[in-house]
Amino acid sequence: MDTKHTVKLGSTGPEVFRLGLGCMGMSGMYGATDDAESLRTIHTALERGVTLLDTGDFYGMGHNELLVGRAIAGRREKVQLSVKFGAMRGPDGSWGGIDLRPVAVKNFAAYSLKRLGVDVIDIYRPARLDPNVPIEETIGAIAELVKAGYVRHIALSEVGAETVRRAWRVHPIVDVQLEYSLASRGPETSLFPALRELGVGATLYGVLSRGLLTGSKPTGAGDFRAHLPRFSGEHRAKNEASVQALHRFAQERDMSPAQLAIAWVLARQPGFVPIIGARRVAQLEDALAALARPLSREDVSALESLVAFTGERYGAEQMHMLDSERP
After folding, report:
1. 3-state secondary structure of 284
2. What is the CATH T-level fold of the domain 3-325, as seen in this structure?
3. pLDDT at residue 215 above 90?
4. What is residue 226's predicted lDDT score, i.e. its pLDDT?
5. Which residues are catalytic?
6. Could you tell me which residues are beta bridge partners of residue 52?
7. Is 63 exposed, middle or buried (0-12, 13-18, 19+ CB in 10 A)?
8. Spans of all domains in the chain
9. What's the predicted TM-score (pTM) here?
């Protein structure tokens, strides 16, 4: 591993490459996908030094884990698997809430291990907070999986500071996965300071704001971005001005918009790990180039003064469910 481009996940976690690869988009969340290209993208990432692959058992109803399992066969020693669990899906792709009961935790883990074709999951995390199950019970169940050798590290996703504190009292937490970008800066206020106080890292997804910052638009009804506030109605029209300003800023510095958005996160949160949702080799190569194009403090300030994004990252019902968004 190139130590020049690594960071430790919290005070108790592993060393990982500076950028992680998020695999969700390879299983249809943003429209049609190509398994062959997805496999090439994962293999290229590993060849370029990326170590952290982020997946979820509910991405494509198991498709994503099966895909990742194919990709890492014979390459396990190069990979750190971050797996989310707990979201319930229907055969029609519908969402059915979250289940973090201890018995469900172990059931989810058993299926993930089989689909991924591995003996141990490096980082295991509930995808959301279950309002019906105390976080202590969920973390306790994962801690038993750690003791039994099926999981190496415990992490969380989209939870607030108090939930992290409660979880930490049961077992060390290596990181919290959160959405963070030029358009989603909420964690800066209180959550990031709390994580640093506790010695907990962060893996940051949505650094391109699901393609908003690069000018990408929803491809159709199957693309869930079509239902997100920032991509529709008056918010989309208002955000377009900021997107264009970002693109001009990038062009002036001979950077792509994606490189600029990633470089901003790296400059703003140097101790945390951006998760890049590349679905194609070209997207991955573009993203990795951001590591060689760091932004100065002046660039960061100048960029922030140019952009102002509007609209929540999810609809009202989903925002209400996010523990990380509570005051």
Report:
1. helix
2. TIM Barrel (3.20.20)
3. no
4. 65
5. 59
6. 80
7. middle
8. 3-325
9. 0.91
